[in-house]
Amino acid sequence: MPDVACLNGQFSSLAQARVSVNDRGFMFGDGVYEVVRTYGGIPFGLDHHLDRLERSLKEVRISPTWTRNGLISWVEQAVARADYADAKIYMQVTRGVAPRDHVFPKVPPTTLITVTEIHPLPDGLRENGAALITTPDIRWGRCDIKSLNLLPNVMARQAALEAGAFEAIFIEHGTGNVREGAGSNVFAVIDGTVVTPDLGPHLLAGITRAHLLEVANSLGLPTAERTLNADDLYAADEVFLTGTTIDVVAAVQIDGRAVGKGVPGPVTRQLAAAFPPG
Ligand SMILES: Cc1ncc(COP(=O)(O)O)c(C=O)c1O
């Protein structure tokens, strides 16, 4: 089967799946989501993604009707039906279908899972590295929740595309602190230490970020989670991004300035070689 959907436990092709226009995901962006990838048909870090999904749901006060094992069973069936070696599993839970009114309705949430094929990154990006732009962070104060409200991320990613860049990095207004990419976490290699902004309400606790820190530690590379500002990024020896669908991507240019020697650096290449995870 090609792309698969599982909508509240009902399987179909993705093209056939339908939700109501009154779904609160559509009306308000009132819901949360997760993206998991498979390597060779096996979801990577599924437990961590489900922990994060359950946390996001709790933070926005949506009580799912499924149990964790029930959801895992839907995911496994959807992955098996789609039968892609490298697939993207998208999971979305909204507050359900009800006439438009801001306050919570008394209806069951809508749970959607889709499985689609992962497309490779643009030619040469892995080998040659990516260009980034920085952009003011205009998002809300709870970016630790993986909410459906991605309008600032959409605007930022489009700005990156139009600037010929791969990703936009959100910078906090006033302080100049680096937060994260529109769909990725950011790392810098500074004097041999692998540094990434510390966690808090202003960025997502990336599953790949956590894995990368473990990999770096296991390779004996010093790591630090601390404040980074835009100047730190410009001056870093190496910069790279992490994310579920990209693994590790070197950044070789930020706002038109070369990072380090303008090519993917040795630490980034060493860390990127740990993907796909064994
Ligand atoms: C805003 C944002 N930050 C970071 C990430 C990376 O998180 P993960 O490694 O869990 O995919 C994502 C992934 O989609 C994201 O959307």
Question: SSE layout and pairings?
Answer:
Elements: E1 4-7, E2 10-13, H1 24-28, E3 31-39, E4 42-43, H2 46-59, H3 68-82, E5 87-94, E6 110-117, H4 125-128, E7 130-136, H5 151-162, E8 167-171, E9 178-181, E10 185-190, E11 193-196, H6 207-218, E12 223-225, H7 230-235, E13 238-243, E14 247-254, E15 257-258, H8 266-272
Parallel strand pairs: 7-8, 7-14, 11-12
Antiparallel strand pairs: 1-2, 1-6, 3-4, 3-5, 5-6, 8-9, 10-11, 10-13, 13-14, 14-15
The structure holds pyridoxal-5'-phosphate.
Pyridoxal-5'-phosphate (PLP) binds next to helix 6 and strand 13.
CATH H level of the largest domain: which superfamily?
Answer: D-amino Acid Aminotransferase, subunit A, domain 2
Q: Could you say how many structural domains there are in total? A: 2
Radius of gyration: 19 Å
Would you state the CATH class of the largest domain?
Answer: Alpha Beta
CATH topology of the largest domain: D-amino Acid Aminotransferase, Chain A, domain 2
Stretches with pLDDT under 50, minimum 5 residues: none
Describe this structure in words.
This protein is of the alpha+beta class and 278 residues long. The chain folds into two domains: 4-117, D-amino Acid Aminotransferase, Chain A, domain 1, CATH 3.30.470.10; 125-272, D-amino Acid Aminotransferase, subunit A, domain 2 (D-amino Acid Aminotransferase, Chain A, domain 2, Alpha-Beta Barrel), CATH 3.20.10.10. The protein is 27% helix and 29% strand. The chain has eight helices and 15 strands. The chain has helices at 24-28, 46-59, 68-82, 125-128, 151-162, 207-218, 230-235, 266-272; strands at 4-7, 10-13, 31-39, 42-43, 87-94, 110-117, 130-136, 167-171, 178-181, 185-190, 193-196, 223-225, 238-243, 247-254, 257-258. The strands form two sheets. Strands 7, 8, 9, 10, 11, 12, 13, 14 and 15 form a nine-stranded mixed beta sheet that branches. Helix 5 (151-162) links the parallel strand 7 (130-136) and strand 8 (167-171). The radius of gyration is 19 Å and the shape is globular. The two termini are 27 Å apart.
